[in-house]
Amino acid sequence: MFADQTFSPYIILLCLVCLIFILLYARRIVQTPQEVDEILIGNGQTIGKREEQDDYFSTVISEGHTLAVVADGISGLANGRMASTLAVTTFVREFMKLDRFIKLHDFFSRAAHQSNQEILKSLSGASGGTTLACAAISHNYLHWGAVGDSIIALYRNGHLVNVNEKHTLGSLLEEQYLSGQITKQQAMENPQRKRLINYLGFEGFKSMEIGEPLSLKKGDKIVLCTDGVYNSLTELELCEILEKPMLPIEAAEEIINRIDGKGLKHQDNATIIILEKSW
């Protein structure tokens, strides 16, 4: 004979609470990777009319963060290709060391100084250098850092807005004009307006520009590109392509095809990365 067994209401309630916690935890595990998958990535590149490709780029995903980085080796200096490759490789290496809760501001600063030191070491006194634009998307925010004249821009609601400043003599001259130090003519007609005043591989490098995180919305597109892109296509031409309902890889390819199709005599290397927040 077995004794009658009755389950206490408290035991039943406890079992239900435990079951709810288990289901919630399982749901969290399933959903976490999906956020990464919903950052769509596309890229494109052309050598233009140059004999060598001095641009270098990479995109990686690690510990819930998405990284995109593009560098433009300075064509007027020797070792531009080496400098851009080394800079991007260094940023990716440092990024892969991060855990899920790392402070990205510290990452940008550390990777920039590490890149500059390694480039200078490799140059051993020779000339060389590179621009670099880096974007990291984490928890609905865009974190970014840049040095030189490669661009990070945000496309939203039909408008393309540059996020970073160009570290060129032209930008400095414009600041001097606005402050009344020089005339508009002096600012606009300086023949060295495009000369870089800050880049990686520069003995006088102090820091890269690091911006405040930007909150992202569904449908936002983050564009990183070298000057071979924005010197060849107007903002209107870029917006015409970015507004089309296509994947980032298709948009990037169309932008590069548009550049090649112009057949500009002195077309520079051109590289573009497009990140789209689809969730």
TrEMBL record:
Organism of provenance: Fredinandcohnia quinoae
Transmembrane segments: 6-26
CDD domains: PP2Cc
PROSITE patterns the record matches: PPM_2
Pfam families: PP2C_2
Keywords of the record: Membrane, Transmembrane, Transmembrane helix
Boundaries of every PPM-type phosphatase domain copy: 40-277
Gene3D superfamilies: PPM-type phosphatase domain
UniProt protein name: Protein phosphatase 2C domain-containing protein
Annotated InterPro entries: PPM-type-like_dom_sf, PPM-type_phosphatase-like_dom
Keyword check for Transmembrane: yes
